[in-house]
Specification:
With 372 residues, the protein is an alpha+beta fold. Helices cover 66% and strands 12% of the residues.
Length: 372
C-alpha cells in the first residue's frame, strides 16, 4: 500500500476520533448539567417540604398556646408581649433561612467548581493518554513500514539471486571439470536462497498465528543434547565459512525438558543466527545448558557487537530492530522466540557482556517423570 494513502487514512481516522471525542464531551456536559440541576431541584423540594412542616408544627403549637391563654383568661399586656415575642421569633427564623440559603448556594458553587476541576483533570489525562497512544502508534507504524520495506527488499534480493543462479545453470556447460563444479555452486546458492526465503515466510506466518492466538505447541520429553546437536549441525557450515567458532556445553548427565521440539529448535536457531550475524570473523559463539531442580537454563553467548544500552527489553518487541551496523538489524526472530517461550511457560532475556557481546538466556520446565 502507498505510504501516502496510509498517512491519509491515519489522519482521517484521527479526525474522526477527535470529532467523536468532542461530541461525547458535549453530551457528557449536557447530561452532567441536567443531573446536577435535577439534584438541586430535588434538594430544594425536600428543604421546602421540611420548612412547611416546621411552620405547620409551630402554628399548631401557637394555636394550642392561644387556646390555653384564653381559657386561663390571659389578656391585655401579657398577650401583647407574647405577640411581640412571636414576631421576634419569626424574624429570627427568616434571617436563619436567608443565611442557610446563602450557605447552601456557596456549597453548591464550590461543588460545581470542584466537579469542573475534576472533569478538567480527567480530560487532560485522557488527552495526554491519547497523545501517548498516538505517538506509540506512529512509532509502531513507522517500525512496521520499515520492517515491511526490509522484508520486501530481502525477498526481492533472494529472488534476484535465485534468478541469476538459475540463469547461470541454464547456460550450456560441460558435465565435468569447472563447468560441473560451477553448476554445483549455483545449485547450492539457490538452495540457500530458498532456505532464507522459507525462514522469512515462516516468520511472517508465525506472526499471523501469534496475532490470532493460534500458536499451538505439543510438549513432549526431549533430551537437550538432541536440541543443541541439531542447532549445531545446522549452523556449523556457516560458522566455518565465516571463520567463527561455535561450541556447545551440555555438562555431564542427561537433561530432559518438556517442550515442543521443533519450536525450541526454532528459538535456538534464531539466537544462534543472530549471534552469527553480529559476530566478526575470529569471534566465538557458545551454546550451553545447565539445570536446577525445576527448570533447564539455556544460554547462547557471543563476542559480537552486543546490544545497545537500554535495549534489553525492546529487542523482543514486534517489528523492533536496531542498526548497530549499516544494513544489519534484528527482525522478527526474537519476538517469535519470546512468544514461543511464553506459550511454554518459560522465560527469555538478554544481558550485555563485559568486554562486548551478548548473552541470551531462556528457561524451560524440567520434564516430570511419568508414572510406571
Amino acid at each position: 500500500m502507498d505510504p501516502a494513502d496510509t498517512d491519509t487514512r491515519t489522519r482521517e481516522e484521527r479526525d474522526e476520533t477527535d470529532a467523536r471525542l468532542l461530541a461525547e464531551r458535549h453530551r457528557t456536559d449536557s447530561e452532567l448539567a441536567r443531573a446536577v440541576s435535577s439534584l438541586e431541584e430535588d434538594a430544594d423540594q425536600v428543604l421546602e417540604v421540611a420548612r412547611q412542616r416546621a411552620e405547620a408544627i409551630l402554628d399548631t403549637a401557637r394555636e394550642l398556646a392561644d387556646r390555653d391563654m384564653t381559657a386561663a383568661g390571659v389578656m391585655g399586656r401579657v398577650r401583647r408581649a407574647v405577640e411581640i415575642e412571636r414576631g421576634a421569633e419569626d424574624q429570627a427564623i427568616a434571617e436563619e433561612r436567608v443565611v442557610a440559603d446563602q450557605r447552601l448556594q456557596v456549597e453548591r458553587d464550590e461543588q460545581q467548581r470542584a466537579l469542573a476541576a475534576l472533569l478538567r483533570l480527567e480530560r487532560e489525562a485522557t488527552d495526554e493518554g491519547l497523545v501517548v497512544e498516538r505517538a506509540h502508534a506512529d512509532k509502531a507504524l513507522a517500525t512496521r513500514d520499515d520492517f515491511l520495506a526490509m522484508s520486501s527488499h530481502d525477498l526481492r534480493s533472494m529472488l534476484g539471486g535465485i534468478a541469476l543462479n538459475a540463469q547461470a545453470l541454464a547456460k550450456p556447460t560441460g558435465s565435468t571439470g569447472d563447468g560441473a563444479a560451477a553448476s554445483v555452486k549455483h545449485a547450492e546458492r539457490i538452495q540457500r536462497f530458498v532456505a532464507r526465503m522459507n525462514r522469512l515466510v515462516g516468520d511472517l506466518l508465525d506472526v499471523v498465528s501469534l496475532e490470532s492466538g493460534q500458536l499451538h505447541i505439543l510438549p513432549i520429553p526431549v533430551d537437550v543434547r538432541e536440541l543443541l546437536k541439531e542447532a549445531e549441525e545446522a549452523f556449523q557450515p556457516a560458522f566455518l565459512a565465516k571463520g567463527i567458532t561455535l561450541t556447545t556445553d551440555v555438562g555431564p548427565g542427561a537433561i530432559v525438558v518438556a517442550c515442543d521440539r521443533d519450536r525450541i529448535v526454532q528459538v535456538l536457531a534464531n539466537l544462534v543466527s543472530n549471534a552469527l550475524k553480529f559476530t566478526d570473523k575470529g569471534g566465538q559463539v557458545a551454546m550451553s545448558v545447565s539445570r536446577t531442580e525445576s527448570e533447564v537454563h539455556f544460554s547462547v553467548t557471543d563476542s559480537g557487537v552486543g546490544i545497545p544500552p537500554n535495549h534489553e527489553t525492546a529487542v523482543f518487541e514486534r517489528f523492533r530492530r536496531f542498526d548497530s551496523r549499516a544494513g544489519r538489524g534484528l527482525g522478527l526472530g526474537l519476538y517469535i522466540a519470546k512468544s514461543i517461550m511464553d506459550v511454554h511457560g518459560g522465560r527469555i532475556w538478554v544481558a550485555r557482556r563485559d568486554g562486548g557481546g551478548s548473552a541470551f538466556h531462556f528457561t524451560l520446565p524440567v520434564a516430570q517423570p511419568t508414572a510406571p
